[in-house]
């Protein structure tokens, strides 16, 4: 029995949250949906962990869904790249759900909570599905599952602007997904297969056709919309800002990361770097967009008054860093990009969790609410400072490690690298500006009268916040795990073709 | 001539797609945006279906004497995509209902006006 | 060695742990001022003693080292005590005691708020300063360098007023900007070219490294270490003058600027090495930048009427001396630079202590108001006089020696212009420092200040007494300092 379960780990990775979603919906007893979701997320994390260890040596785990052998059936394929991503996503899921109980209680009325948790589980299932599947069409299906459920999640926001933000996200997200669908259709036309590994072997014969070039363009743009790569980012700031706190935490740390994975998987594994960067000018496009993303994202963040907006724009800039790493097109660069995915997920989760604590007490997260918060909510603010130092890239936080590797990777490129390095560092300086503005208000302003009585956030919220804050420091000091995992993932990608 | 008449299905796809895309971008009425999105998606469905067609092919049903049949896989795929499309539309419409309740309008520019954005 | 109860390695770790523990205890007993300050004093003394233990090891050429583990695979977070770091650690930990005594008097006398936060950040700053002093590679140094910036930020912004916040913002932004934009890439580049960032006497670059790249690197390092306040990245120092005076003492004498010039000196001696440095054309550029920095800031200092601002610009020019000596890259100048770190520390801290005492006792900040103050505060003004002599470089104060060696250095290398710069700057020092005690003693008292003025509280006077004695003692007994400094050059000869 146990062996059977172990063999089916790849299926369980997706099925666990997927099956638990209706359970959450049906069992509408107070507190129960949360419990189901939380336990499931822990199990899912355990599965990710086991899968991560199974492929750590460089093996590839192939699982035929329903017993239909690939390329006809749907294949789940675990390697060092997606297992690392799955570990991250499911881990963030656990922490977010730990935070959710108290936070959701205060933000979402009781009778709708079961819907909320079932959407949450669907979202988790969708994200993990995108990562694990080896079937290109399956990517689209899971992409839509995660997208539809995240629209639902965001629309739970208390502000009415959550609705318009969701609508905008829905329109853009659907266009992005449909573009990926078009690309898949063109590829199927030329090769007659949808299995990624199979596609990779068959595509080279038809590589020189306009059909494949078009397919490539559609998929890259589709994934870039989901990734919120500048200038396709306009859905992101409002969606992050008006969503319930816990949703912001989860989506900010996961959804764009998974979109980056989709981009990496198609570009490197399916099309191959040679085609993508040799035949198509993807490198220049990505680099150009990433540089603009870093500059505009960080610059916009400086001028926001809603702190959630600050962090959302900062995310756009940080996505730019990841893409810079990818666009350097070396194993080091790719590893730096993937490392930053991991590191950024941790520190952004920490920051948004801290914001969630503030929101819980103040009911909003504008810069005025932060006045004197260093005194009234010292633990929350300390976690925020740790996360903020991570964004700046201070030593002993994860942000420093990302920056170090990005700069090293850029340095290998000579003169072009120098420009890249200066962009990376300018972004870092802008981060000082937008983070320190908040820190200064929090510690060196007195709270207004009615806000002075506000107490520290409850322990149920502080614990997950501090888990992430400590992770920000831990993975900034004990870096071998993340660095080795990211390097392995990068070698897997580069070696794929 | 071949490129126009022979590939007419693709032309239809492109025209539909652009109509849908234009409506999504240009129209400020949220319902119309959803309709545009539907047209946009439908064009892709047609792309898939028309690709599956084989000249003189019969329906892909297992029966004696039929050797030439159309590719069933795209149909199946598009069935999934249609379901996804319906879910998206339903969700979009539900959102519009909520937006109407919250803003008392479904015109994008008026919503922006009420929020004080733009 | 058996006499000692603990090993050198443990003493080194202790010296860094003690300030941390002190900070924790201060936090714990923040609401009991007497206990809190006793803890700080005890912690400071214990820290100094554990640093002192290390001296024997260093003099035997046997400085302990300790590896915390890899921060980045292949790059360790590592400590290693060597003579230069030893000297810096001794100064910092000794002056911590004195500054604490002084701060107790100042903070109470001035009824400052948030005193607990003040003492915590102060202790943290000392811990990170020792980290800089003992760092065994550039990465470790950088880690503590940034931590020092962060831990001193709350001190600069202490008052919480709009002016204090603005000053702190400039402080933080310049220090972080230079370190992120120049220092960090320079470190990574060094790692990229040399394959290591571990300090080694005589330099770490392979012989075939291109001189153009090294030249750019040198410039990046010189400007990147913003704490050394080389013009044009000096603005943070005058801005940080909004802080309470003990903080100014910390910034100018104990930790921050000293960390800056220490880093410069360390990089010149242990990363580039004297031989390589003299071959770089960029070195000459930087020499003249340092020279210009010395002269310009001295000239600006003369125009300042605010006492602390004048002292701040004086610091900038004195830091230029150390940078200049480090860049000259010959034994005499290196010794001069090393000694100047100590001499300037004692001289400048005395001057700041006096400025603070004048502020607490008479609430005066402008030099023009200090006429005739010598009658009411003779001790303070006498201390100011001695401190000024040390900065100028006149006997009977320690500053004489370091200036002597620096001048010898510029003479030996044939940089007569720089020699001239040093001499003109000394004259300027006289012009902007000596009139202050002179007018205080011999000038006519202003009418308004006839009110009865007294000396500052006794802990402040005590602290001043110690530093003044220090200034004079360093003149009479410079030998230990000289030996420690010349270990740097002797080892280099053995190795090179």
Briefly say what this structure is.
Chain B is an all-alpha fold. Chain B has 5 helices and no strands. The radius of gyration of chain B is 20 Å and the shape is elongated.
- The third-level CATH topology of chain B is Helix Hairpins
Report on the biggest sheet of chain C: 2 strands, antiparallel
Strand content of chain C: under 5%
- Residue windows where pLDDT falls under 50 for at least 5 positions of chain C: 492-496
What oligomeric state do the depicted chains represent? heterotrimer
Q: Give the mean pLDDT of chain B.
A: 87
Overall geometry of chain C comes to: globular
- What is the architecture of chain B at the second tier of CATH? Orthogonal Bundle
For the record, give the distance between the C-alpha atoms at the N and C termini of chain C, rounded to a whole number.
30 Å
Give the helix/strand class of chain B: mainly alpha
Strand content bin of chain B: under 5%
The N- and C-terminal alpha carbons of chain B lie at a distance of 48 Å
Computed Rg of chain B: 20 Å
Strand order of the largest sheet of chain C: 1-2
Note poorly predicted spans of chain B.
Answer: none
- Helix and strand element order of chain B: HHHHH
How many separate helices of chain B?
5
Summarize the amount of helix of chain B as a percent range. Answer: over 70%
* Count of runs of 4 or more consecutive helical residues of chain C: 21
Feature tags:
heterotrimer, B: 118 residues, mainly alpha, Helix Hairpins, 5 helices, 0% strand, elongated, C: 496 residues, two-stranded antiparallel ribbon, 21 helices, 2 strands
């Amino acid at each position: 029995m146990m062996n059977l379960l172990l063999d089916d780990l790849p299926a369980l990775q997706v099925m666990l949250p997927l099956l638990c979603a209706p359970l959450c919906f049906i069992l509408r007893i107070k507190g129960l949906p949360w419990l189901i979701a939380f336990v499931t997320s822990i199990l899912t994390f355990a599965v990710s962990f086991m899968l991560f260890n199974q492929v750590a040596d460089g093996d590839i785990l192939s699982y035929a869904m329903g017993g239909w052998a690939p390329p006809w059936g749907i294949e789940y394929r675990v390697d060092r790249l997606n297992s690392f991503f799955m570990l991250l996503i499911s881990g963030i899921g656990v922490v977010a759900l730990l935070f959710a109980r108290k936070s959701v209680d205060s933000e979402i009325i009781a009778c709708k909570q079961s819907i909320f948790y079932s959407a949450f589980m669907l979202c988790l299932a969708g994200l993990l599905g995108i990562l694990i599947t080896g079937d290109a069409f399956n990517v689209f299906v899971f992409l839509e599952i995660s997208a539809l459920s995240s629209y639902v999640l965001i629309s739970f926001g208390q502000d009415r602007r959550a609705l318009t933000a969701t609508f905008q996200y829905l329109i853009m997200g659907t266009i992005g997904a449909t573009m990926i669908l078009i690309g898949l259709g063109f590829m199927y036309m030329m090769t007659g297969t949808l299995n990624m590994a199979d596609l990779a072997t068959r595509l080279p014969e038809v590589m020189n056709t306009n059909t494949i070039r078009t397919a490539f363009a559609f998929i890259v743009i589709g994934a870039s919309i989901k990734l919120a790569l500048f200038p396709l980012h306009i859905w992101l700031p409002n969606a992050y800002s008006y969503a319930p706190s816990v949703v912001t935490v989860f989506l900010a740390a996961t959804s764009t990361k998974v979109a980056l994975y989709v981009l990496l998987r198609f570009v490197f594994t399916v099309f191959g770097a040679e085609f993508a960067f040799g035949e198509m000018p993807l490198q220049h496009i990505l680099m150009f967009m990433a540089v603009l993303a870093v500059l505009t994202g960080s610059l916009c963040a400086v001028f926001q008054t809603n702190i959630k907006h600050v962090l959302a724009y900062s995310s756009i800039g940080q996505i730019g860093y990841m893409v810079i790493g990818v666009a350097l097109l070396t194993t080091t660069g790719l590893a730096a990009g993937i490392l930053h995915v991991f590191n950024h997920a941790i520190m952004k989760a920490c920051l948004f969790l801290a914001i969630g604590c503030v929101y819980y007490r103040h009911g909003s997260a504008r810069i005025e609410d932060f006045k004197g918060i260093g005194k009234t909510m010292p633990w929350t603010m300390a976690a925020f400072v740790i996360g903020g130092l991570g964004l700046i890239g201070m030593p002993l936080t994860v942000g420093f490690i990302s920056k170090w590797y990005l700069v090293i990777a850029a340095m290998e490129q000579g003169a072009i690298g120098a420009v890249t390095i200066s962009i990376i560092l300018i972004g870092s300086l802008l981060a000082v500006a937008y983070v320190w503005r908040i820190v200064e208000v929090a510690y060196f302003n007195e709270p207004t009268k009615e806000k002075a009585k506000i107490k520290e956030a409850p322990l149920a919220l502080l614990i997950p916040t501090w888990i992430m804050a400590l992770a920000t420091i831990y993975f900034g000091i004990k870096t071998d795990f993340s660095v080795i995992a990211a390097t392995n993932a990068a070698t897997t990608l580069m070696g794929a073709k | 001539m071949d490129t126009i008449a022979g590939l007419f299905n693709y032309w239809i796809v492109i025209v539909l797609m652009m109509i849908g895309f234009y409506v999504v971008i240009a129209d400020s009425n949220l319902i119309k945006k959803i309709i545009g999105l539907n047209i946009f998606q439908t064009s892709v469905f047609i792309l898939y279906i028309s690709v599956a067609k084989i000249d003189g092919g019969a329906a892909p049903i297992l029966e004696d004497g039929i050797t030439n049949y159309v590719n069933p896989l795209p149909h199946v795929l598009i069935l999934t995509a249609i379901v996804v499309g319906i879910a998206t539309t339903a969700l979009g419409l539900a959102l519009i209902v909520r937006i109407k309740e919250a803003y008392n309008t479904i015109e994008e520019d008026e919503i922006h006006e009420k929020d004080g954005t733009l | 060695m058996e006499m000692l109860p603990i090993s050198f390695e443990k003493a080194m770790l202790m010296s860094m742990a003690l300030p941390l523990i002190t900070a924790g205890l201060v936090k714990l007993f923040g609401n009991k001022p007497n206990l809190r300050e006793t803890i700080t004093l005890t912690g400071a003394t214990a820290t100094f003693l554990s640093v002192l233990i290390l001296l024997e090891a260093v003099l035997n050429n046997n400085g302990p080292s300790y590896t915390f583990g890899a921060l980045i695979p292949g790059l360790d977070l590592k400590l290693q005590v060597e003579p230069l770091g030893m000297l810096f650690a001794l100064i910092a930990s000794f002056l911590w005691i004195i500054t604490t005594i002084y701060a107790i008097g100042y903070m109470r006398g001035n009824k400052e708020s948030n005193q607990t936060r003040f003492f915590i950040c102060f202790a943290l700053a000392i811990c990170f300063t020792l980290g800089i002093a003992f760092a065994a590679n550039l990465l470790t140094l950088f880690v503590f360098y940034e931590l020092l910036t962060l831990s001193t930020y709350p001190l600069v912004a202490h008052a919480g007023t709009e002016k204090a916040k603005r000053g702190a913002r400039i402080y933080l932004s310049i220090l972080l900007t230079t370190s992120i934009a120049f220092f960090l890439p320079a470190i990574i580049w060094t790692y990229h070219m040399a394959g290591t960032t571990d300090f080694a006497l005589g330099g770490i670059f392979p012989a075939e490294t291109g001189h153009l790249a090294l030249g750019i690197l040198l410039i990046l390092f010189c400007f990147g270490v913003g704490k050394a306040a080389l013009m044009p990245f000096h603005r943070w120092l005058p801005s940080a003058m909004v802080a309470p005076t003990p903080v100014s003492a910390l910034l100018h004498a104990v930790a921050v600027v000293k960390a800056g010039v220490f880093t410069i000196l360390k990089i010149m001696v242990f990363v580039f090495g004297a031989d390589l440095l003299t071959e770089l054309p960029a070195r000459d550029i930087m020499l003249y930048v340092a020279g210009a920095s010395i002269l310009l800031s001295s000239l600006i200092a003369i125009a300042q009427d605010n006492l602390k601002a004048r002292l701040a610009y004086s610091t900038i020019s004195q830091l230029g001396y150390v940078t200049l000596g480090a860049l000259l890259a010959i034994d005499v100048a290196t010794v001069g630079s090393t000694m100047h770190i100590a001499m300037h520390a004692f001289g400048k801290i005395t001057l700041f202590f006096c400025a603070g005492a004048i502020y607490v006792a008479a609430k005066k900040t402008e030099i023009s108001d200090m006429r005739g103050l010598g009658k009411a505060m003779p001790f303070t003004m006498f201390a100011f006089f001695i401190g000024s002599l040390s900065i100028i470089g006149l006997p009977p104060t320690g500053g004489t020696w370091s200036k002597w060696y620096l001048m010898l250095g510029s003479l030996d290398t044939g940089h007569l212009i720089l020699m001239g710069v040093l001499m003109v700057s000394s004259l300027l020092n006289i012009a902007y420092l000596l009139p202050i005690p002179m007018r205080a003693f011999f000038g006519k008292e202003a009418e308004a200040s006839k009110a009865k003025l007294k000396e500052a509280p006794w802990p402040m006077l005590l602290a001043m007494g110690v530093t003044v004695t220090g200034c004079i003692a360093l003149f009479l007994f410079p030998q230990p300092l000289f030996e420690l400094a010349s270990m740097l050059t002797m080892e280099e000869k053995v190795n090179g």
